[in-house]
User: What shape does this take?
Amino acid sequence: MDAQGRGRADNIDPADQWVLNPNTGEYELRLSASAPQSSVPGPRRPSSRDAGGAGRGRRDAAPPRPREPQQETGGAQVPPPRRRRGAEPEPPQGRRSRRPVKKGSKVKKVLAWTAGGTAFVLVAVGTAGYLYLKHLEGNVTATDVGDAAKSGFNKDEAFNILIIGTDKRTGKGNEGYGDKGSVGHADTNILLHVAKDRSNATALSIPRDLIVNVPDCPTVQPDHTTKVVPGSENVRFNTSLGQEGRDPGCTMRTVKSVTGIEPDHFMMVDFNAVKTLTSAVGGVDVCLKHAVNDEDSHLNLPTGKHKIQGEQALAFVRTRHSFGNHGDLDRIKVQQQFMGSLMRKMSSGDTLTSPTKLIKLAEAATKALTVDKGIRKVGTLKSIALELKKVPPKNITFLTVPVLDNPADGVVHKTVIVNPNTAPQVFDAIRNDVSFTEVKKKEKAAKDSQAARLKGPRSAPSEVRVRILNGGAESGSAQDTLQWLQNDKAVLKSENDGNAPAELARTTLEYAPDQAAQARELAALMGLPGSALKPGESVTNAQGLPTMTLTLGKDFKGAGVSLTAPAKAPTVDGKSTADKVECAS
Assistant: This one.
């Protein structure tokens, strides 16, 4: 029987059975003397039998030991560690002094470490990644989306997580939300990008009514066979999930098709996530610039500040016809404000210093969470939480894909299309790890070194010799690049050498020391960043002459399209950050 089952049997809240042991820095399961012992290791709790002598049925029982004072941690009692054999005895109780816990004590550090690391995960997905306790892993549902998601998580790189909120009417009390009979469409969508240096993060909302082309999608069936769901053109983004049996991997593929940004993993939640999370933290503070009495969502609140939770919180984030132009774009703004408030609530002292509240929060949240198999394990989710913990709230930016009203509708605010003039710059900034807030760059020295590689004399295009390999770019990219270099840039000493031995995440140009001038010229022609230039060795081309090697990686955007990251992110209307308090209007 697990901890949750034992708690119900003894009328004890399971969350109250987990307490922090400051000596080990771990949470441990504390059970009554009559309950079976947990498999979680930890010091044994003294029982009444120990105080009076050897218990019945015990052989070679040790003599009774004096009852030692217990340490108090957040309202739970943890026994002190046993004295090692041969160690100096502790002073008698009467001579021991109880020192107050200092501000920088181990207890507070442990609480901040375990709780703070989960705060933004809980906010970003409307549910939690707080899985430090092994038994929570069983709450999480995993879906096999094939190669749409990565097989694991690399904590040393930037990463993208697609957060999907479905409109499926699952759970008690949700009959009035979403589309009746919906198979679970991609109703709320956020592409969360976390920078490589963890100095910033961007949460990009993708409107459900955005008109897109959904690509063909291989989906893994229950019998482990693969079925390809045909793509659709000029359809709403929300149909990338559920429609025709599409899984979250189809939504991930659609995001890549629309933005050029490849999601590494997904996290999906339903309506219950908002209700259970807000109730677990005791309510979330929201602000209204005008009174709302919405007949569709049943939200009824006067002007001003309110604390909402449960059913009322779900009604708040589902309300559309009472904000702005009564469209989905204005509802997205309200949802972003709500997420920022939830994050601040979870970062507050009354949440971070309450192990009981954190455990309840984790229990409720993980039951609403579905992820890809690459991040299902407790250790992986823990790593994601700890990496997100490093991002300052003031540098977490919420923004929405720049869009225009769809001219094919004939009416405004029905469906939207990607704004071709402003959206590409937003996508490019995210793809190149550029922050939408002012941050101190931790890798300035490395970037200065990369920039230095581009400085110096350059050869004429006619003197550049290079072979081109495809190392993960779209099929045909090497040939397209060859034709572009020869026809448009007069780099005639170039050749297509087929596929690279292995795929690369980023495009590289390897050159020998005496080819530095050629490398700088080719980098300038193609818009390669300094980081793409790799000093090394040259190879021999078909004519027996030394040549450089250009390997087109997964980041390659097409012949003639610059790979140099923008120095500054573009200005985006309506963006906000997680640390600011805003009122819905």
About this structure: The chain is about 25% helix and 20% strand. Confidence is low (pLDDT under 50) at residues 1-11, 31-78, 91-132. The longest strand covers residues 186-194. The two ends are 50 Å apart (CA to CA).
